[in-house]
Task: structure prediction
Amino acid sequence: MVQFQTSNQSLIDFSQRSLYISALSIAFNPTFWNTVARQEYHGKSLTRLFNGNSQRACYALALTIFSLGLFRDFLFERALRQQPPSPTLSQPFIPPIAYALIVCGNILVLSSTYALGITGTYLGDYFGILMDEPVTSFPFNVTGAPMYYGSTMSFLGTALLYGRPAGVLLTVEVLLVYLVALSYEDPFTSEIYAKREKERKAGKKTE
Result:
């Protein structure tokens, strides 16, 4: 059994297969939706599957992403249950912090979904479903990526609630994966809206 040890006490059991399955799931999800969304933007692959209905295609992708997220969360919690607890994370002040992180994280996620709507949340701009103006109200006046940071907070809160250092390690992976995703998504989304503005200006000139 391979374990990471400090002061003769195991913190993370690296022999557990569930740990690696959870890590793969965490990395897979953003990779999947970014790949599919870009294929849709360049080739309308999903829209063609839905007979040219981009709205339905976007909702189908939204359902798929949501389902994959639920499965990822299931794998994460299963991995935590199979990991050793830490006495340090079993202190009485830890659960209030954990619950606060989970509540605040979910507020960020749910409020951003409400502000953007389904298509705005689930990559509708890659389907040509663009928003009229950027959303600047809460939670976007707190952070530019409330879905990602809120999700990260929920992962960390869950890890602390279980008292598993392995969960903290997986949360670090969640954050890193999201940051990588943002480094691709933000510039690409900006290009989409810049292209629309250019087309609008060109249209006004021809009138």
Remarks:
- The mean pLDDT is 93.
- Strands lie at 3-6, 9-13.
- Residues 165-206 form the longest helix (42 residues).
- The radius of gyration is 20 Å.
